[in-house]
Amino acid sequence: MPRSSIVFQESLLEHLTFSLAKDAYSATQRDKFDAVVLSVRDQLSERWIKTQQKYYQVNAKRVYYMSLEFLLGRLLNSYVNNLGLMGQYAQALDIFGLSYQDLVELEFDAGLGNGGLGRLAACYLDSLATLEYPAYGYGIRYEFGIFAQKIKDGYQVEIPDNWLRYTNRWEFPHAEILYPVRFYGKVDAINCGSGRHRMLWTDTEEVMAMAYDYPVPGYRNGIVNTLRLWSAKATREFNLSYFNSGDYMKAMEDKNQSENISKVLYPDDHTTAGKELRLKQQYFFVSATLRDIIRRYRKFHRSYAEFPNKVAIQLNDTHPTIAIAELMHVLVDQEGISWEESWDITRNTFAYTNHTVLPEALETWSEGLLGNLLPRHLQIIQEIDRRFQIEVGMQFPDNPHRIAQTAIITGDGDRRVHMARLAIVGSHAVNGVSALHSDLLKTNVFPDFHAVFPDRFTNVTNGITHRRWLIEANPRLSALVTEAIGDRWMYDLAELRALEPFADDSVPPALHARLSGEAHARI
Ligand code: IMP
Question: What pLDDT, on a 0 to 100 scale, did the predictor assign at position 337?
Fold first, then answer.
């Protein structure tokens, strides 16, 4: 066995003994799996610290991917492959009497997404790290991800996906990275003198957001980025006061209510149940994320003037759109920056990815519900809407229809707040996820917004990370491709074009080369 595999065997045994306190008599298959994950983490930690330090040393512009979903799936195989340590671990596993393939099958899926947009988010994390972008994913650490599927009598049965039940060794909990997130309450205008007012949001309920970090290694480049997922924790204060007065049940009820926020991944966009909880989830992760982004930015910057040059935030669908109102709230209400300057900063910071052309799937909130949960944010959205209507009116004075079609808040009675419209108005770039889709956004779904902002709409076609969906999924095909064109394509998918000369080749290229070599030898 090569020396390097012996080093990995030692690492596995050390983790079994010192991290898990297990021996040959007591170690379960899962303990062995955990020992491998902990050993891979060791490989990641130093690279992770170095990467993060480097981002500070060069004062890098950071890109933040805000998404309510990250459909990560299993991480072990992907991470070992990205680190280029497949061979070493496969050999080292002899010591456990386990095959690499058996081990990989033991991992629970991190199913923190429903489908396409969660899968896209997970793929972006891999690609951003591989392309060496100073990038961060931000989302929610759901206790229950997408359902686990069982087939019973030929039918699908959906059972809760308790993916964290054996604890997850990939995650790094950070009890020190904790932000209060506020809900409900009321807003008062405070007179600051000389005719100026400041809006004060008070009497709120608080839930704490605690960070859980996941390392995101790039493909064989030494880069490790961060996926930070927030978990809801009850605030200590209101638990304790009930607890001290003897009302244990009330203390527990409040704790459960608060912590429900990160309990389950919302099943899909179309159910009516739990609407308020969904909006709570959105604001919860957006508020904590922005606090964290601003904290990181403020380490090196005194003012906000450089904010859009140092921070890019991509909104994955409309779910994080309340971030636009939240950044305005921070800048205007807390930092005392003028509305106009705050709006410039906000608009230059955000970009929005649209995922649907179906009007019924475009997210809207009842004005009443939003105003009850986030009273100050509703005021801010109303003001954004009012100012935007004036702009559109001035740009198209003879087209009242256009003003109506671009209103962010519409209807009579309980009016609706259109999140996609807010996202378009509050971003500097809007993209669909295929050429056809992006065209439809301009021509059919948002034609009036396109008339107002002709340069704002772009296309970014959805892709996959081929490191997962080809290299991992089909190792034999990958080996054949590499044999034909070398391994550059593993870093850059566009290199697959080098296969084009083989397009009409009915014989696989490697075989072809071998055959023609033999033919030459015969001649
Ligand atoms: P964050 O960006 O503040 O979340 O910190 C992430 C990591 O970056 C930390 O764990 C440190 O390893 C590193 N880091 C934080 N602040 C600095 C700094 O001022 N200079 C260099 N590295 C830093």
Answer: 97
Domain ranges across the chain: 1-58+83-107, 59-74+109-468, 487-522
Residue 163's DSSP bridge partners are none
Q: Whose CA is nearest to atom 23 of ligand 1?
A: 53
| 3-state SS, residue 153 | coil
Among 301, 218, 292, smallest CA distance to 50 is for 218
Among residues 264, 290, 294, the alpha carbon closest in space to that of 277 is found at 264
Residue nearest to atom 10 of ligand 1 (CA): 49
- Cα–Cα distances (Å) from 463 to 8, 131, 217, 303, 323, in that order, read 35, 15, 19, 37, 26
β-bridge mates for residue 314, sequence order: 65, 351
CA of 295, closest atom in ligand 1: 3
| CATH class name, domain 59-74+109-468 | alpha beta
Task: Look up tokens 């608060």; give the residue.
Answer: 258
Structure tokens at 274: 């739990």
H or E stretch covering 155: strand 155-159
Q: What is the pTM of this model?
A: 0.93
CA of residue 28 to ligand 1 center, whole Å: 37
44, 47, 54, 56: which to mutate for ligand 1, most atoms within 8 A of CB? 56
Secondary structure class of 113 (helix, strand, coil): coil
| Helix axis angle, 29-57 to 3-14, nearest 10° | 110
244-301, pLDDT tens digit by residue? 677 777 777 778 888 899 999 986 655 555 789 999 999 999 999 999 999 999 999 9
Mean confidence (pLDDT) of the chain:
92
Q: Helix 339-349 to helix 375-395 angle, to the nearest 10 degrees?
A: 90
Q: What HEC string does 296-332 produce?
A: HHHCCCCCCCCHHHHEEEEEECCCCCHHHHHHHHHHH
User: Between the CA atoms of 269, 270, 272 and 278, what dihedral angle is there, to the nearest 10 degrees?
Assistant: 0
